Amino acid sequence: SIIKTSQELYVVNCTFKKIQGNSLEGAAITTSNSSVVIKNALFQDCSNQKESLVKVMLSKQLTLENTQVKNFTGKFAGAVEVDKVDSVSIKNFTCLNCNSTEGNGGAIAYRTSEESPKLEITNSEFTNCGVETGKGGGIYIESDSIEIK
Question: What is the model's pTM?
């Protein structure tokens, strides 16, 4: 990962291009036990031979706003992998040509064990995203209970 932390993380007005990962972490960002805000960011022409682009796990909050991911391929996960995060807010997010070759969620893979998960996705677009052998071409949600409005 270019950024790996367990502290609060703010990524604002940043561009990430041609990042190539080869680990079970996010190619660009991996966080755990933190709060993460990503705003006005662009991730373009990236790949990870084993995992995702952005991986947030065991954390309090993820805010993803006014952000674009263009042309990402990951093996076991898609562009954004969210695992056991208390509150997730995704607004004005664009995901174009994002794929997972062996995992779930071409654009977003969301897993939680919370009884009342807080996942909000608004004004977002997923175009030409998919999985080769998994589930959830655009979005994969693994949860004991979830309400979609």
Answer: 0.91
Full domain range(s) for residue 44? 3-139
pLDDT tens for each residue of 52-110: 999 999 999 999 999 999 999 999 988 999 999 989 999 999 999 999 999 999 999 99
In a domain? residue 35: yes
- Cα 91 off chain centre by: 13
Any long-range contacts for 5-8 (C-beta under 8 Å, 24+ apart)? 5/30, 5/31, 5/34, 6/31, 6/32, 6/33, 6/34, 7/34, 8/34, 8/35, 8/36
